[in-house]
Each structure stands twice: as C-alpha cells, then as structure tokens.
Amino acid sequence: MITVFAVIGAKALYLLYSWLISAAVAAWLSDRKGYGEKPGLAAGLLLSAAGVLLWLVWPAKRDSRWKVQGPLPFGGKKKTVAEARAERSTPGD
To answer: Domain range for residue 44?
Structure first.
C-alpha cells in the first residue's frame, strides 16, 4: 500500500503556520509588555490567535518597553528602559 502524504493538504499547512506565527507574536508582545516571552508563548500555543488578542489588551508593566518606547519599536532614536529608570530614580538611591 502506498502512503500519500499530500492528502493532508495545504489547509493544514496554513493552519500550522498561523498557529506558530500567533505563538511567536504573542511571545513578542508579552516580552515588550514586560512579562517575558514564556507567558506569551504559552498563551499563543494554547489559545492560538486568541492569545495574540489577549496580549494586545493585557496591561503593560510600568518600566516595560511598551510603555517607554511605544507599542512598535520603529521610529527613530528613543530612550531605553534603563535610561527611563535612571531619569526617575532619585540621586540618593
């Protein structure tokens, strides 16, 4: 008997790609919001596209890159998180 692997089809391949891309995007969003990549990766793998939507509405931490540099990392020279923390710290710390 001949096994044909093409029976799986292109739709399954596209669904696999969308699942992996949503996991990567959720990991990137959670890292930019200051929570690290692991919670976003878990949410993206378990919830697929809903994981991305979850991290879009999840609030960012105070010193995260999302708050300091904005949602997208593009657009000129911006402050780093360390520079923003240094501006807020008092000289006596």
So the answer is: 9-88
CB distance 20 to 10 below 8 Å = no
pTM for the full predicted model:
0.78
Residue 63 to residue 81: CA distance in whole angstroms: 6
User: Using CB atoms within 10 A of its CB, is residue 54 exposed (0-12), middle (13-18) or buried (19+)?
Assistant: middle
Cα 83 to the chain's mean position, in Å?
23
3-42 residue pLDDT tens: 766 677 878 889 999 999 999 999 999 999 999 999 999 9
d(CA 25, CA 56): 10
* 81 lies in some domain: yes
Computed on alpha carbons and rounded to an integer, the radius of gyration of the chain in Å comes to 19
